[in-house]
Write a sequence for this structure.
């Protein structure tokens, strides 16, 4: 890890990160606080909104941390310093993972607090697990975008593959969610998206199936972050 | 003494026979070596291989005995670099950019950095996104020089600089040379290399096809280009039949340009007596003229 680079990346992405984090926390608090909407925290917020909003941050910043700077040419200045490419990739990865941890960590706090204030009736452990699940989806998304960001030298290719894949997974999750409202034929659609590996329904009934599924998301994250780092360390850079 | 830069059969082959092929070069510490060539000749590719940004297809290059691809992070500690295309990171102003860069290099803004900023007359408060090409180039130069690295790799460092700043740059180059800094720079403007470089390599289609050292440059300067305009076809034919080396001819204007050595003044005067002179002008043979010829013959 390179601390000066981490600082630069943090500053460069602060606006997007803070906005996304703020919006996510605000919506979550709102849904829990209002009696009528508390039931929608599961299907609407954790089923759709959480992954959709965080995807904004992941796609924008995942692109920016590597390929964006290669495409633009400013990566030359980072690599003029005596710093290994692997260190650059790991630092940027550290930033992405770290900021996701902070975002979802804050959401744990927000949800517990709102639950307490409104007496919404959620068990604390359930709220923590829900946020953990949403975090794992975000982590897998970040890995996918990061892999594309490490592989390609042009932003448009990285966004066209990694970014598109993330959006596709979200769309499939939204379409698939209609299966829960009686369109049984859409059940299979849920198998096509990694978002459904976050089994919020199972978490809410305090089941035991959700944890292994989250492990799969973790596996995706490990693999994709690894791929991105490996490619970035070895490829030709047009700087 | 160990060479600062050593390239052995260094090759990077791109599609359509572009790239750099079998480059062999040794640069001693303290030497200033220029590399010239047209766009696409392979100058930037050579620089990128030295920076460890691209992997050679075959052959290899070393900086101070360290492989530029394998040990890229270590060699960077020895290099100050100006990329061929200047693009700064997302930041507010020149000042914040320099601060960021100094942090990455783990250095502080010392007297030398301030001196560089003053020499290049950089307005550090200017919005980095709105900087002119020349301003960006100057900032990039400060970034490279402030490393005080033993080796400077400068890819077309004077692009966008005005004549005054070009002079400042040349002065600075000569100053770091006295401190023993090695410089490897590329340019498509031959003349600016003449004053600073110990050696000039001429690159074409990825290969070094000619090398000029100071001796050759001095020999080059012993020639004058003489443009002679006669009055009629008879004059023109006479001018065309001389033993002087012919550089250029324009039959419609009865004009020829000859290359005349400083020892050939007498035969030149003899020649001039035989024609009815309309116009004559002398200019010193410089690298531009020299490479024009090279370009035509190779």
């Amino acid at each position: 890890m390179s601390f000066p680079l981490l600082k630069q990346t943090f500053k460069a992405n602060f606006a997007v990160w803070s906005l996304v984090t703020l919006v996510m926390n605000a919506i979550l608090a709102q849904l829990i606080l209002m009696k009528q909407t508390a039931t929608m925290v599961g299907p609407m917020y954790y089923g759709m909104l959480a992954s959709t909003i965080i995807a904004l941050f992941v796609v924008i910043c995942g692109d920016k941390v590597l390929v964006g700077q290669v495409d633009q040419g400013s990566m030359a200045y980072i690599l003029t310093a005596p710093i290994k490419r692997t260190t650059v990739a790991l630092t940027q990865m550290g930033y992405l993972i770290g900021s996701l941890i902070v975002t979802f960590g804050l959401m744990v706090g927000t949800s517990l607090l709102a639950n307490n204030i409104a007496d919404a009736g959620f068990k604390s452990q359930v709220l923590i697990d829900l946020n953990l699940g949403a975090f794992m989806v975000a982590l897998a998304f970040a890995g996918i975008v990061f892999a594309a960001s490490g592989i390609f030298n042009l932003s448009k290719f990285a966004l066209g593959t990694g970014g598109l894949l993330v959006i596709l997974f979200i769309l499939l999750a939204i379409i698939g969610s209609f299966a829960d409202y009686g369109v049984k034929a859409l059940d299979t659609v849920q198998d096509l998206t990694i978002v459904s590996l976050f089994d919020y329904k199972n978490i809410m009934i305090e089941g035991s199936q959700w944890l292994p599924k989250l492990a799969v998301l973790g596996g995706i994250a490990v693999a994709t972050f690894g791929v991105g780092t490996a490619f970035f360390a070895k490829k030709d850079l047009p700087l | 003494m160990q060479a600062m830069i050593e390239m052995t059969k260094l090759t990077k082959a791109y599609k359509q026979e572009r790239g750099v092929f079998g480059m062999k070069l040794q640069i001693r510490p303290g030497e200033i070596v220029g590399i010239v060539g047209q766009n696409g000749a392979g100058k930037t590719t050579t620089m990128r291989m030295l920076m460890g940004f691209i992997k050679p297809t075959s052959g290899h290059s070393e900086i101070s005995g360290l492989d530029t691809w394998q040990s890229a992070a270590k060699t960077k500690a020895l290099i100050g670099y100006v990329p061929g295309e200047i693009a700064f990171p997302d930041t507010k102003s020149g000042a914040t950019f320099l601060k960021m860069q100094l942090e990455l290099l783990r250095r502080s803004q010392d007297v030398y950095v301030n001196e560089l900023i003053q020499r290049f007359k950089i307005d550090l408060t200017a919005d980095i996104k709105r900087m002119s090409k020349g301003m960006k180039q100057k900032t990039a130069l400060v970034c490279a020089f402030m490393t005080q690295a033993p080796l400077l790799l400068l890819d077309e460092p004077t692009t966008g600089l005005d004549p005054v700043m070009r002079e400042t740059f040349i002065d600075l180059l000569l100053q770091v040379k006295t401190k023993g800094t090695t410089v490897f720079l590329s340019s498509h403007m031959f003349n600016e290399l003449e004053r600073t470089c110990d050696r000039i390599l001429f690159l074409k289609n990825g290969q070094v096809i000619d090398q000029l050292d100071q001796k050759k440059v001095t020999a080059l300067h012993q020639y004058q280009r003489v443009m002679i305009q006669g009055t009629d076809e008879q004059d023109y034919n006479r001018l065309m039949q001389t033993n002087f080396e012919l550089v250029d001819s324009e039959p419609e204007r009865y004009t020829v340009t000859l290359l005349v050595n400083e020892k050939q003044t007498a035969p030149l005067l003899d020649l001039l007596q035989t024609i009815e002179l309309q116009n004559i002008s002398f200019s010193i043979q410089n690298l531009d003229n020299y490479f024009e010829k090279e370009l035509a013959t190779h």
Notes: Chain A is about 75% helix and 0% strand.
